[in-house]
Amino acid sequence: MEDFMLTPRRPTRALGELQRQTFQSGFERDQRLVPSSVLSPAPSPDELVIRFRGRRKVPLTYSPENETKLQRTPNKQVTPSKRGEVTPSKGTPPRYSTRQSPRKRLPLYDLSAMSPKKGSPNAKRPKFEIRPECNNAPVEVLMRGLSQPQLVNVLNKLLVAHPELKQEIDLPDPDIGAFEEQLNRLKKNIYRSLPSSRLASKNDSPAYNRASVHLLEFKKAIHDHGRTLTDSQQWQAAVRYSLIAFNYVRATPIWENATHNYIRRHCFRMLVNCCTMALKRGIWERSQLLNIKERLDDFVSEFEEIKTCLDLVTSYLDTATKDDADSASQKP
Fold first, then answer.
1. How far, in Å, CA of 267 to CA of 246, rounded?
2. Helices 235-250 & 262-281, crossing angle to 10 degrees?
3. Mind giving me the DSSP string for 246-310?
4. I need a labelling partner for 294 at 20 to 30 A (CA). Which of 76, 88, 178, 201 fits?
5. What is residue 268's predicted lDDT score, i.e. its pLDDT?
6. pLDDT of residue 119
7. Start-to-end CA span in the chain (Å)
C-alpha cells in the first residue's frame, strides 16, 4: 500500500491534449485584448519623411564654419552658385550641393606655345643640338672622346681630301703595353677564382668550374689582340706580342683532367698561327731572327707546334747566311 502511494502517476494523453488547448486559447484571448498599435505601432509622419529622405550625403565643400557664419549674419546676401542654385531665404538654412567634378585651375601661361600641335612637323620630342660656337674645345681634346673606328674615318677623309699628307705621316709602332696589361689582369682573375683553402685542390674539376669563365675571357683577349695586329699588317708588333703572350699562357694552371687543358692548348695554337703569319709576310733582319729564335727555344717544351715557327726562323737564317756568303764571294 505504501509503495502504491509513493509512485507518481503519469498523466494520460487526453489530459496533455486538454492542457495544450487551454494554453493556446488563453494566449489568443490575451492577444485579442491587447491593441494592435501596441504590438506593431504605425510610423509617424516625421519618421516616414526621414525614411523616404534616405541617408544624408555630406557634400565635398561642406564646412560647419560656413553654416555658423550664415546663422550669425542672416542679413548678409549670399551669391548664387554657378550651377543656378536658388539663393536661400532669410529664415531657411543654406543647402549645400555636392560638386560633380573637381574645380579646374586657370592656367597662368600659354599652353599652345609650349606644346606643338599634332599635325605640325615639330610634334616629336625636340632634340637638343650642340651649336659650334658653344663648343670651344681644341680638336686634339675632342678627338679623345672618339672611338677607334671614328678616328680611322676622320683620318681617311683627311687623306682623301689632301693626298699630299700621306708622305708626311709617320705612324709609330703599335703600343703592346695595353694588351700586356689586359692579359696580366685576366691571369690574376683566374688565380683569384681558385679556392684559397689549403685542404681544397686547385687543379681538380671543381676548381676548373670556378675558373672556366675567366679562362674563356683570357682566350678571347688573345684572339682579339692577334686579330687586331694581323688585320692592320703590323707584322713586327704581332711577333713581339706573340712572344710576350706565350709567357702568360704558360703561367695558366694545368688541370688534372686532360680535357680541361683544351683552352690552354688553343691559346698556344692561336699565338703560333699569328707568329707564323707575321714571319712569312714581314721583312726581317738577321739580328731580329736570332733574337726570335732564342726566345722560341724556351717554349718548345710547352707546346710542340711552336717548332713550326722555329723551323721557319731557322730557314730564314740559313737563307740569310747563304746570301751573306754569296755577297762576300762576289767582292774582289
1. 9
2. 160
3. HHHHHTSPPPSSGGGGHHHHHHHHHHHHHHHHHHHHS---HHHHHHHHHHHTTTTTT-TTHHHHH
4. 178
5. 93
6. 56
7. 178
| pLDDT digit string, tens, across residues 91-148 | 555 555 555 556 666 555 555 555 555 555 555 565 555 554 556 788 888 888 888 8
Sequence-distant (≥ 6) Cβ neighbours of residue 75 within 8 angstroms: 90
pLDDT reported for residue 149: 87
71-108 in b/e form (b: 16+ CB < 10 A) is: eeeeeeeeeeeeeeeeeeeeeeeeebeeeeeeeeeeee
Rounded CA separation 249/265 (Å)? 9
> Distance from CA of residue 27 to its chain's centroid?
84
- CA torsion sign for 182, 184, 190, 194 is negative
Distance of alpha carbon 149 from alpha carbon 160, whole angstroms? 16
Does the CA dihedral 269-275-279-285 come out positive or negative?
negative
What are the φ/ψ torsions at residue 180 (nearest 5 degrees)? -65, -40
State the CB neighbour count (10 A cutoff) for residue 248. Answer: 19
Q: What DSSP string describes 101-112? A: SPPPPPPSS-HH
* Sequence-distant (≥ 6) Cβ neighbours of residue 81 within 8 angstroms: 97
pTM of the model: 0.56
State the residue for C-alpha cell 737563307: 319
Percent of the chain scored above 70 by pLDDT?
Answer: 61
